[in-house]
Design brief:
It is a single chain. With about 50 residues, the chain is an all-alpha fold. It contains 2 helices and no strands. It is about 65% helix and about 0% strand.
Length: about 50
């Protein structure tokens, strides 16, 4: 039964590592971190008077 040479394992490892890094970076920059507008408006409209 033929076995893969260590160089082929190294190339596969580098290939999948590169694919993982590309996928992780694309997913990181693809997400938006903006708050929903309804939450922002709700926070702005709440006016709490201080009672000392």
């Amino acid at each position: 039964m033929p076995q893969m040479s260590p160089l082929n394992w190294l190339i596969l490892f580098l290939f999948f590592s590169l694919m993982y890094l590309i996928f992780a970076s694309v997913m990181y920059y693809n997400t938006s971190n903006q708050q929903p507008k309804s939450t922002m408006n709700l926070i702005k409209n709440i006016n709490l008077p201080w009672k000392w």
